[in-house]
Amino acid sequence: MILLPDFNWPDIFMFLFNSVYWITLVGVMVVVILDNRNPVKTISWILVLFFLPYVGIILYIFFGQRYRKQKIISKKSIRNIENNPAYLYEELDPAHYPAECTKLIRMFRRNNSHPVFSGNSVELFTDGREKFDRMFEDIRHARKHIHVDYYIIEQGKIGDELQHLLIEKAKEGVEVRLIYDDIGSWKTKQRFFTEMKDAGIQVYPFLKVLLPYLSPKFNYRNHRKIVVIDGEIGYTGGFNVADRYIDGGKFPFWRDSHVRIAGKAVYGLQTAFLIDWFFVSRSLLTSKYFFPNLNDAGDCLVQTATSSPDTDWENIMQGIFSILNNAKKYVYIQTPYFLPNESLLTALQTAALSGVDVRLMVPEKSDTWVALKAMQSYLAETMEAGVKVYFYQEGYLHAKTLVADDIVSTVGSTNLDYRSFEFNFEVNAFIYNKDFGKRMKEVFLKDQKQCRLIDLEEWMHRPKMVRWSESICRLIGPLL
């Protein structure tokens, strides 16, 4: 009888497992190096991979991969939508760009083909009930199609009212298409969306994940808020569909900003929706039906800008950077999350050091403790350069706005943080109009009365344990 050697199978298994692990680890490190990132980020990921065995690779899978070079939506499909003849025909002649905004407009035209349109009316909303009442009234008058794209759609008074209204319009024969973010709307029962599907509404989740926290793409979310009605009226801004936008939720008041746009600039919001629609449904809609001929509705110039993990550039961040670099008198900013990258932080500091009146308004209390602590770690170096920082105290400040020199304003979904710049699909309306700019300035100054101005010397003398906790939270800022 031939005797087989007595193999120590557990040891062999561990040898093979460790061999595969180290080969994978070296391979991931090579990928990180060849990705040509910021050297600090490259070194950080290499240290994480090396000193956190097994955990480091898991963190990289979830948070370290870059999708900016991996086109989730093909450029060819985007061009097919953007090159709609009616859409291009209505674009403003470059000769009529306002001198103060020419560089910014041209940048958006080049970094992601965002046209600017004249002849628009823009209405600003800072109250949730007023915004939803106006939007629901516009939906009731829809004749052809309604396009809805929200990060969060929750059941409740507002969510149920929207659902019933969309079902009613679908039964009337109006085409209704709805996109919701799968993670952002995770609290909403599937029955809510199934009822709309059964009524004839086309409903799709964005980047659906079966196991939310075990999917590499759960970190990449559609944070946009877009509603387009008949291709004639569009809404965008910071409001999601949830009751806290009218009753404050766990806060006394939920302060946000949104705009209603009527005129040719709706083409930009329509294009953003149709690109998202192609991604979720694989249905390419390019008909002129979605870009009707429109008469002038006002005197505002509006440019819609989008950004996402798979665009060539961080378009909206570049726009804010450009505004800060070109401001002459003032820049007033509102954001619920302030975790700037190095470029934006430098731009803020440079503008303030140059004598520009830079004011930053953030919430004193947040819906996320870690994000609040991480944000506070940036405030000292911001104030040292001369930026005035205000803590909003009336409730929770969720608005994402900027106004500079009365001439350029932006309202949208983009926060001043890593997530919005690198991970999220975002949309902002950039408005070039002095009357609207002055309106934005008035709103900021009104909100400022509900704030307290932070004193730098007092801020620097906070307890060490508080500052240490902020520094630790700052380390995971890019993951928030």
Structural class: alpha/beta
Estimate the global geometry from the Cα principal axes: globular
Number of strands: 19
**What strand order characterises the main sheet?**
4-3-2-5-6-8-1-9-18-16-15-10-12-13-19
Q: Which spans have pLDDT < 50 for at least 5 consecutive residues? A: none
* CATH topology-level name of the largest domain: Endonuclease, Chain A
How is this structure best described in words?
The chain is an alpha/beta fold and 480 residues long. It is built from 19 helices and 19 strands. Strand 2, helix 8 (157-171) and strand 3 (175-181) form a beta-alpha-beta unit. Helix 2 runs antiparallel to helix 3 (55-64), helix 4 (75-82) packs antiparallel against helix 11 (266-281) and helix 6 (102-112) runs antiparallel to helix 12 (315-326).
Task: Give the topology.
Layout: H1 9-34, H2 39-51, H3 55-64, H4 75-82, H5 85-89, H6 102-112, E1 116-125, H7 128-140, E2 145-150, H8 157-171, E3 175-181, H9 190-198, E4 202-206, E5 225-229, E6 233-237, H10 244-247, E7 254-255, E8 258-262, H11 266-281, E9 300-307, H12 315-326, E10 330-334, E11 338-339, H13 342-353, E12 357-363, H14 369-376, H15 379-384, E13 388-392, E14 396-397, E15 401-404, E16 408-412, E17 416-417, H16 418-423, E18 426-432, H17 434-448, E19 451-453, H18 456-460, H19 464-475
Helix pairs in contact: 1-2, 2-3, 4-11, 6-12, 7-8, 12-13, 14-19
Which properties best describe this structure?
3 domains, 480 residues, 19 helices, globular, alpha/beta, Endonuclease, Chain A
